[in-house]
Design goal:
By secondary structure, this protein is of the alpha/beta class. Bound molecules: iron/sulfur cluster.
Length: about 775
């Protein structure tokens, strides 16, 4: 580390949570919200009758919730949302857009809650206050002026509740377009597509109880210690009941090695339960080959469930031939895992009742061949008959609290005809049938000038998306950008010709006695009612913002009375019940403690595929290849981050403190490059359309297969071209980036720490 460089790195941890997690949680909560408001927030978090965590989508226990039913990152998420400090006209008068752009993402999050609607007029340097009515007036003016509704983009982040999301999609479709991109396009779209094709439902098939009955649990391309921390309690319970946890991940992650339960004395004293009994450090994007190897070993061992295969599946024969024809050396080369280790794992999976659960996250979904890889996992489960029975199944773990719920109630650019027809009948208005733009196509449409108005219900679009400079340019081409947000973020600072920021209530805040609902990774729909006083008087709920916008832009149409629906969320739920299957007696069941499970046919071995069977896939086994001397880089999160929200500059489990402008590299690779630990390097990604750069980041040695590298997003998103996507799902392939690593160029040393475009110690790269 050179003179003046802040931040530090040391040996990574061998276990997660424990007392440090408690200390970090309380520091964030009491530091940002104060003791009284902070305590009230934590007491309502994930409690029956309380509010759902605005962070990830790991479920609450079906029974016996703990008094502290949250993890460190849930506490950080609530601390960030429940801040007492607010920012309004004075703050924006003091800080120009350019000043704010020079600040870090962590600084943005620390500034406080947005308190009043703000507008950035054309050519202005500072945001100014505006009334709600005037803001909706601008939206109506711009949306009505568009030659076609398809020139407007309506983005959704996974924090939107079922009620807000349903009303939003109803407005967007009544307005006349299906341009409903969402954050799912960038995360589990590949899972949804693969599972829909294989087993007829785009969701996981297990419950929390299944984990307690499982014999083998595979955690693939997932870092639960940071991204789904309460999952560690479930994994600990399963391991203590005899399950074997197998971690499959290029990086050694503390949360997969051990867990010190912070609500157990032993855990507080630092004694961690060992979690994974097998740790396979697969190559980045080597998972398809690994699961092909598992299939090969299982079939060679005669572990297939013949009765299940005969009764429930098709294309087994083709798949079996493909597997038998796949040579082991190729499997070993692409996966980076030895045949013996694969066969050993297959032996484990085939033993006993074959009660196997496979969990995964972005480490699988953000690759070109992501859909094929997830289909391969489904193939292995079909061979074992490990779907639709206790202790067995498929578990994509969602990263955002209601991303699954939003999709269920209509946030999707290509909803099925059955949904559109039911919506049309209920609403009494014509619903468009032409599929809309997903996230990547929305960026392209804005860049090409085909879309001119961008509206976001939550989220931080400019930071979450790939090709940061290209996306920024696309947003700037819009006539209007408008963001419904709780906190300041970088997307606000990349305005169209005019821009609006509409401040909304947080999930933790009271909403005039109304409550919303969300759906977690296991298909449980439950109520969420805020407990805290709103941070500011002039905030509106997401539902009210959508209803008022709709009233102003298109007015009441057909059977739709926006104000009436928003007045009482039971009315919106009644509409959801009428349009979306599985929500019978919605208002009654959502009030039950713990809510209710949505139906999932695959759990009952009923396959909603065109022929009513579960399908094997026969994909070509491949992996992303890089030129000799180059590296395969993946983007990832730090422990002080939730999606694009940065709570701080530490990544405790990986031994990082006070910095984010870093690249993790195998120590032997660094030595081979003649780069010292901590030395500044330039990262260049290589594509058909040219190169992209991340300059002056620090090289941090980290245990992973040779030839691999990793860096945090959003900083590293600048390296990923918008067109680099997963086949079929169009999800940005941010986990497969071909890069070269060089010592930071001397003459560019003075600009150390800069991304391709601007400087910020933390490495935010959009200007
Ligand atoms: S595990 Fe996820 S949902 Fe649960 S408290 Fe932590 S961040 Fe929130």
């Amino acid at each position: 580390m050179s003179e003046g460089d802040e931040g530090n790195f040391k040996k990574p941890k061998k276990g997660a949570a424990g007392l440090p997690a408690v200390v970090a949680s309380l520091k964030h909560v009491f530091g940002k919200d104060g003791v009284v408001r902070g305590t009230k927030a934590l007491m309502g978090l994930n409690q029956a009758g309380g509010f759902d965590c605005p962070s990830c989508a790991w479920p609450d226990p079906d029974r016996d919730r703990s008094f502290a039913e949250f993890c460190e990152n849930g506490a950080k998420a609530v601390a960030s949302e429940a801040m007492k400090r607010t920012i309004g006209k004075e703050f924006f008068a003091e800080h120009s857009v350019a000043d704010l752009m020079a600040q870090t993402d962590a600084w943005h999050d620390e500034q406080g809650r947005l308190a009043e609607p703000m507008v950035l007029w054309e050519g202005a340097s500072h945001y100014e206050p505006i009334t709600w009515d005037a803001a909706f007036g601008i939206l109506a003016e711009e949306l009505r002026a568009l030659p076609s509704p398809d020139q407007a983009i309506f983005y959704t982040s996974g924090r939107a509740s079922n009620e807000a999301a349903f009303l939003y999609q109803l407005f967007v479709r009544a307005y006349g377009t299906n341009n409903l991109p969402d954050c799912s396009n960038m995360c589990h779209e590949s899972s949804g597509l693969a599972l829909k094709e294989a087993i007829g439902v785009g969701k996981g098939t297990v419950t929390m109880d299944d984990f307690l009955e499982a014999e083998v649990i595979l955690c693939v391309g997932q870092n639960p210690g940071t991204n789904h921390p309460r999952m560690l309690s479930t994994l600990e319970d399963a391991v203590k009941k005899g399950a074997k946890l197998v971690a499959i991940n290029p990086l050694k992650e503390a949360g997969l090695l051990g867990f010190a339960h912070p609500q157990h004395l032993t855990g507080l004293l630092g004694r961690a339960t060992a979690l994974s009994s097998t740790y396979l450090q697969v190559k980045v994007n080597g998972d398809l080959a690994l699961f092909r190897g598992l299939a090969k070993a299982l079939l060679a061992a005669g572990a297939e469930d013949s009765d299940f295969l005969k009764e429930h599946t098709v294309s087994y024969g083709e798949y079996r031939s493909l597997v038998e024809a796949t040579p082991w050396p190729e499997i070993e080369a692409l996966s980076g895992i030895a045949r013996a280790d694969i066969e050993k794992l297959a032996g484990l999976m085939a033993a006993g009742g074959k009660r196997v659960i496979t969990c995964w996250a972005m480490g699988l979904t953000q690759h070109r061949n992501a859909v094929a890889t997830i289909r391969e996992i489904a193939n292995v489960h079909l061979i074992l008959g490990a779907v639709g029975r206790p202790g067995a199944g498929l578990c994509p773990v969602r990263g955002h609290s209601n991303v699954q719920g939003d999709r269920t109630v209509g946030i999707f650019e290509k909803m099925p005809e059955s949904f559109l027809a039911a919506l049309e009948k209920q609403a009494g208005v014509t619903i468009p049938r032409q599929h809309g733009f997903d996230t990547v196509n929305s960026i392209l449409a804005m860049h090409e000038g085909k879309a001119k108005v961008f509206f976001a219900l939550g989220g931080n679009f400019a930071q979450a998306t790939p090709d940061s400079a290209f996306t920024a340019a696309a947003l700037r081409k819009c006539r209007l950008t408008c963001h419904v947000s709780t906190k300041l973020n970088r997307s606000h600072l990349i305005p169209g010709r005019r821009a609006l920021i509409l401040p909304c209530l947080g999930r933790s805040e009271q909403d005039e006695g109304r409550f919303v609902s969300t759906e977690n990774s296991m298909g449980i729909v439950q109520s969420s009612e805020g407990k805290l006083e709103p941070a500011a008087e002039d905030l509106l709920s997401e539902v009210d913002i959508v209803a008022l916008m709709a009233e102003t832009v298109i007015g009441d149409v057909g059977n739709i009375r926006w104000g009436w629906l928003a007045e009482d969320y039971d009315r919106i739920r009644t509409w959801i019940e009428a349009v979306v299957p599985g929500f019978d007696n919605y208002n009654e069941r959502v009030r039950q403690a713990g809510g209710f499970y949505l139906p999932n046919a695959a759990k009952e071995r009923r396959w909603n595929t065109p022929d009513g069977k579960a399908h094997f896939s026969v994909a070509t086994m491949d992996a992303f290849k890089v030129q000799p001397g180059r590296f395969l880089l993946q983007t990832l999160r730090s422990h002080d981050q939730f999606n694009t929200t940065v709570y701080g500059l530490n990544d405790r489990y990986r031994g990082i403190s006070g910095m984010r402008d870093i690249v993790f590299v195998n120590p032997e690779d660094l030595a081979a490059l003649g780069i010292k630990p901590g030395e500044r390097i330039d990262v260049t990604s290589h594509w058909d359309d040219g190169e992209r750069h991340l300059r002056g980041f620090r090289a941090i040695p980290y245990e992973m297969p040779r030839g691999m590298a990793a860096a945090y997003f959003p900083e590293a998103n600048v390296l990923v071209p918008v067109g680099h996507v997963a086949e079929g799902s169009n999800t940005p392939a941010s986990k497969s980036i071909e890069v070269s690593l060089m010592p930071a160029n001397a003459e560019r040393k003075e600009s150390a720490g800069r991304g391709a475009f601007s400087k910020a110690k933390e490495g935010s790269v959009i200007s």
